[in-house]
Design goal:
Length: 140
């Protein structure tokens, strides 16, 4: 399983929906706020995979990586995303968490290897800045 990559050039899904709604002055609704998912900045995911690939020749036997970062409910992630974007986008970023009625997917879908971004020379603040800049450019 690959954690949901977020950041510049991400597949336009959940985060894109939130951004488009905010720039239209709408309040996006999170229909499945109880599902626990794993979101990771795409640049951190790339660094984790690169470090893993470099380490493979040094390992014996089978080695795996299941990169993980923000493991939380979709409601909590939407609120995290809104808080990070509101100061960077210059538009209000409210979110409505609906009463979840859809339980057709697994309640928890996550990876198990927490990535140490600082150890990889990665900056969470810079990643959020890049995400905001990316969306400002494609929305305008």
């Amino acid at each position: 399983m690959i954690a949901n990559p977020i950041g510049p050039f991400e597949e336009p899904r959940f985060c894109s929906y939130l951004i488009r709604s905010w720039f239209k002055g709408e309040v996006p609704a999170v229909r499945t706020p109880l599902y626990v998912r794993d979101n990771i900045h795409v640049d951190l995911l790339a660094k984790a995979y690169a470090a893993f690939a470099e380490s493979v020749p040094l390992q014996q036997g089978i080695t795996k990586l299941h990169p993980s970062f923000y493991v939380e409910s979709q409601g909590a992630f939407a609120q995290r995303f809104a808080a990070e974007m509101s100061s960077r986008l210059g538009v209000p970023c409210p979110v409505t968490l609906l009463h979840q009625e859809d339980f057709t997917e697994p309640m928890v879908r996550i990876n198990t290897d927490r990535i140490d971004g600082v150890g990889l020379g990665w900056s969470e603040t810079s990643a959020w800045d890049a995400e905001a800049e990316f969306y400002k450019q494609i929305i305008k």
